[in-house]
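Checklist before submission:
- one chain only
- standard amino acids only
- sequence pasted in full

Submission:
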Amino acid sequence: MTAIYWKDLKNYIYSPIGCAFISFIVCVCGIYTSAYNLSYSSADFEHTVSSMVVLMVLAIPLLTMNSFASERQHKTDQMLFSAPVSLPRLIIGKYLAMLTILGIALLCISIYPLLLSRYGNVNLLSAYTAITGLLFLGMLAIAIGMYISCLAESGLIAAIATLAVLLICCLMGSILSFIKVSPFISFLVIFSLGMLLAVLIHKTFKLRALSFAAAGVLGAGVIAVYIVQPALLEGALLSLLSFIALADKMTPFVNGVFDVSILFYHASLSAFFLLLCSQTIEKRRWS
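Returned file contents:
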């Protein structure tokens, strides 16, 4: 795992990707700090961090797109499979390398509150609480990007798919405030998500019978609920969409609240997607 970690970390540091990612995060934070904290003489650096969520999501696919998709595209994934290291250690090594690049970027922007505190009364505890929330959000985003990279045929497809998924998740809170949910719309969305889940089961586990069974059970269940009690689908859809609204999970940290439950949410989902990543590669190794 250590060898994989250092190999990938050096590749990121010595390649334009890692430098571009760090530079993008630092420059964006500098622009927001100048526009918000300096122009308006505001000491609330945590709101600057909150504004960076979507833009950080735009940069995450740069790190994750080639984690596995490029190996698959160039047919060099067999070299990884034959490496003298277990698959979970290989995945964790790659994950920690990307997480280190993200940590370096956030460590750089951690200097900003200290600089601002020389010219005003900055609440450093709230500022670093917000940066911690951003770190854990980035952890989850990287894990999602790695899983998508395992499924994709090329780095470009992985980047586009990761960007689309993360943007939808981050903007979900804003989307919910603009749309009016009806039982029929809830039925269509939940039914579509059920079919998508069945496809992911097939892609991940390579078990056609299990994917068909999941599609049948989920589809029949959603149809039955829609016929018997359609109002239940509205509440289920709102709960589901609220669960995946990643940007909303930053709100407590921006308000200076160190919410351990949200940290557990990010950490557990990160572990879940890494597990799916391991399962996907394991099945492809023996297929």
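Reviewer check: The radius of gyration is 21 Å.
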